[in-house]
Amino acid sequence: MSAAELFTYADALAALDDFAQGHTVGQPSSALRRNILAAYREIVATHDWSFLLVPGRVQLVAPQTTGEVVYDLTGGATTERQLTLTDATFPSNAADYSIRFDGIVCDIERRYSDTVVSLDTVMSPGADVTSTTYSLWPRYYQLPIDFMSTHPDAYHQLSDAAVLEAIRAAEGALNRGERYYLPQDDLTRWVDSIRHGDIIAATSTVAGLDVAHTGIAFRVGSELHLLHAPLTGGVVEISPLPLAARILGFSSQDGIMVARPLECRNEC
Questions:
Q1: Residue 220: CATH number of its domain
Q2: How far apart are the first and last CA of the chain?
Q3: Could you give the number of structural domains in the chain?
Q4: Which domain, by its residues, includes 128?
Q5: Per-residue model confidence as pLDDT tens for the chain (268 residues)
Q6: How far apart are CA 149 and CA 249, in angstroms?
Q7: In a domain, 210, yes or no
């Protein structure tokens, strides 16, 4: 039996780039990347590939192991399910981390200080644990927003170095905060909570790009549509399809962000 061949995203990009060299002129790499992502989604959606779903954990950074921890189920000085660290400090975003000690993987619920956290009510030991070694790692990794600064050729305005630096700073500010969105599969459940006049941003499936398109929520009877300009420089229109159906029709979009302008009741 022949060995399985590993064909990575980088391999696909290189192969498509080689193909494009002979058949197109000046094809931007962003277009090639979008086509690869579209092909991935098509393959996944073609069949119920149960064998593609492999549970596991991928650690992208080395775990923290310095020092030791002590676990107090009920009698902690700060909180119940208290985990105290010595000779090291917990990261500022420790609530997004998991920790393994005494042979158990636990989720951190809250960070109280550099050395004290509480553990999740379920993902935690059922008894005290004396001083022991540990391994600490992030449960998830927030993907960075960096598409514009890493693809300046796609935006003629970014030929200005000052503008490019401003965009890079804006991306950095966004990456330091938390971002929330409504996935496309949940839109029908939340559509009644979106008000006429809310600002809608369609989230992008392109790596490093947070928003692909924007518009204004516009209700037509009981249905929610999008007031927007489909093309740059085009005519503003009300989308023929309801918002949820419109998002599902674009492979490059996977949900929405919603912003609601508030009335200024005091001095602004």
A1: 2.30.260.10
A2: 72
A3: 4
A4: 68-138
A5: 566 677 788 888 788 777 766 554 455 566 777 788 888 888 877 877 766 666 677 777 889 999 999 999 997 788 999 999 999 999 988 988 999 999 999 999 999 999 999 999 988 999 999 999 999 999 877 788 999 999 999 999 999 999 999 999 999 998 887 788 899 888 888 888 999 999 999 999 998 999 999 999 999 988 999 999 987 667 899 999 999 888 888 888 999 999 998 877 666 5
A6: 28
A7: yes
